[in-house]
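Notebook entry, structure prediction.
Reason for the run: the old model in the group folder had no record of what sequence produced it. Starting over properly, with the input documented here first.
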Amino acid sequence: MSDLKPSPGVLWGRLAWHPAVKAWLAFAEGAGEPDTIEVLRDGKQSPAYRLVGVAPDGGSVIAWQESGERVWHFRRDSGTRAGGGP
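New structure, fully documented this time:
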């Protein structure tokens, strides 16, 4: 039996239904849907996603919710994975 956890996943297709995308489209006026969504942290308590292709230069944005909050937070994906945040 392996100790490795499976990757949370990637979503593609028409993604306007996804709660993180709905929040992004409301926040970033004139923005389009992401090409894909990479699930960084799944779950109801504090989910995190990479919205691929939504930044003005075509880059990615990280979208996450803190545990117990209904508000979505966004930051530009810098490509670094060090530290404690999503």
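Summary: Residues 19-27 form the longest helix (9 residues).
The old model has been moved to the deprecated folder.
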